[in-house]
BED-type domain-containing protein
Amino acid sequence: MANNFSKWKDPNTGNWTATCNWCKKNYSLGISGGYGSATRHLKSKHPVEYAKLGGGTGKQTQISRFANNQQAFGNFSYNDAQNLTGMANLLVEENLPYLFSESLAFRDYAQTCLNPQYRGYSRKMVKKEISRLYGAEKVRLQNYYANFDGRVTVCSDIWEDTCHNLHYLGLTVHYIDNDWHMHKRVLAFREFNDR
């Protein structure tokens, strides 16, 4: 904003004022000195300069999680489908209930700290997405194992779902791929009652 506005304090009112460096129009910034009205002016009257700030494009500057030698900063667009998939993965990996997706506290956190465009998802949407991901992963694994020429180890495990106090008997496969990376996948599981 400093390249687009000159900020000064009005001696008559004591309020901060910003003068647009492009059209010399003055905007009151109020006592707090916030740039709200000045930003709206820039967006409507000087859209090219506003776009240079990263505004108006629906994109946000992001620091790459895995910065490489090429480019550590980039722009990304809000992608609702990608966020829904991310929410589904979060619930599965952290063993959270579907209701977590409707949590107002999480929605406030996401909108305040991560992305103001985040709108949240109903538990029905998340449940449907988890089922879709499960089906896609099942097909992917079936295709992979159909062409796998190595050996696998199959074992059974019993584990407890601490959220619901349920026990499960699972069938797990372990294998080493052609790049010598060890993998394990749960092929099937059923609720197990020891009574």
User: Anything to note?
Assistant: The chain has three domains: 5-59, 78-147, 151-195.
